[in-house]
Amino acid sequence: MARKRREREAPEVGAMALRVIRALVRRAEAGDTEALEQLQMIEAVAQSATGEALTRMQAGSGPVSAPYSWAELGDAMGVTRQTAHERSRKWRTAHPQVAADIDAAAAR
């Protein structure tokens, strides 16, 4: 059974982020190298943020009351549970102290 999605500002914020990214793509296509650099920065931040969010949601830390399964997280992202786990593992490897803090908070 799928969990009830929280109705918050996420759809509006996501739509705004997509508009910004599409605008940067148009600028890059027109030859703006600064826009290309900004897109690369956004990609790196998004990958890191996704890894952290996966780790927190699977651990059940922060505002998440119960841990999500890898299958639930993979379904939400449109990937396999193994791919979701791999993204979290890569983030944990790159950010071991934050990952340890998340695990400690989830254990409380």
Nearest-integer average pLDDT:
89
Q: Which parts are unreliable, with pLDDT below 50 for 5 consecutive residues or more?
A: none
- SSE order in H/E notation? HHHHH
How many domains? The number is: 1
- The rough form would be described as elongated
> Terminal Cα separation, in Å?
26 Å
Identify the quaternary structure here: single chain
Quick structural gist:
The chain is an all-alpha fold and 108 residues long. It is 75% helix and 0% strand. It has one domain (10-107).
Description of the structure:
Helix 2 (33-59) crosses helix 4, helix 3 crosses helix 4 and helix 4 (81-94) packs across helix 5. The chain is elongated. It has one domain. The protein has helices spanning 10-29, 33-59, 70-77, 81-94, 96-107. It is mainly alpha-helical. It has five helices and no strands.
Identify the notable features of this structure and list them briefly.
single chain; mainly alpha; 75% helix
Give the SSE map.
Elements: H1 10-29, H2 33-59, H3 70-77, H4 81-94, H5 96-107
